[in-house]
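Single-chain item
Fold in token form
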Amino acid sequence: QVQLVESGGGLVQAGGSLRLSCAASGRSFSTWNMGWFRQGPGKEREFVATIRWRSGVNYIADYSDSVKGRFTISRDNAKNTIYLQMNSLKPEDTAVYYCTRDQTYWGQGTQVTVSS
């Protein structure tokens, strides 16, 4: 049974930073493709970032254009946890952020609100 639990959301002013965490349960976490999606008010869920395991390469990170250069996804396999470091936050980053494994398993989400 895979369980994903996000934490770290909150209220921050524009230009500020937050770090989200996603703790996972299950075996072989180091080989899981993990990612972050978000859903803003009145919007559909959208891709934010992913960190994928590739044999011989280790991990590959990808980002949506809207967060590239501001957000960084990382993982700590010893803790079965991934992170999303969010810098230079903008009001349009306001959303519920979801952690996912292969877009098959999802966490419950954590609210991020950026005030202008």
Remarks:
- The chain has a mean pLDDT of 96.
